[in-house]
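Open question from group meeting: does this chain pack into something compact, or does most of it stay loose? Before anyone orders reagents, we agreed to write out a predicted structure and look at it together. Recording both the input and the output here so the notebook holds the full record.
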Amino acid sequence: MKYHADAGGGERLVEVAPDEVTLDGIREPCHVEVLSPGERILVRFRDRTARGYARRSQKGWELNLGGRVFEVRVDDERAHRIRELAAVAAPVAGGSTLRAPMPGLIVRIAVAVGQNVRAGESLVVMEAMKMENELRADSAGIVTCVHVAEGATVDRDDPLIAVEPEST
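Structure tokens returned:
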């Protein structure tokens, strides 16, 4: 099965098969053994062995291997396409309106009219295809209009949040 993984060092295409993994087209022997359900693991990769744990985190998984901690996000092909679509369609640039990148359900609104927002700040969380997608501000500004309410169903390109650049 193919996955897209990001461990903070950039995204990698990963294909998993029994006792091997293919990273960006390069096949490597790999073995993962679960030592205790849900947490403790043993990983053998590239002639190295590390013990550690794997736990779900807000961003995906937290891996602690050999005393080093990695935040890892792993998406299957479908989730990766949704994330790419949301990233392309969601930016808020000076004086624009954030629009829904796909049909979905508004789960949470993180801002209110009159609120100052920073670039990268969460504006709204929407659920689409059973995945939550956090839509963020592309630049700093002031929220001038919230077009939706929590629990609302939206279609692609429906207006969600309007942000105007701060006057200097």
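Observations to bring back to the group:
The mean pLDDT is 80.
The first strand starts at residue 2 and ends at 6.
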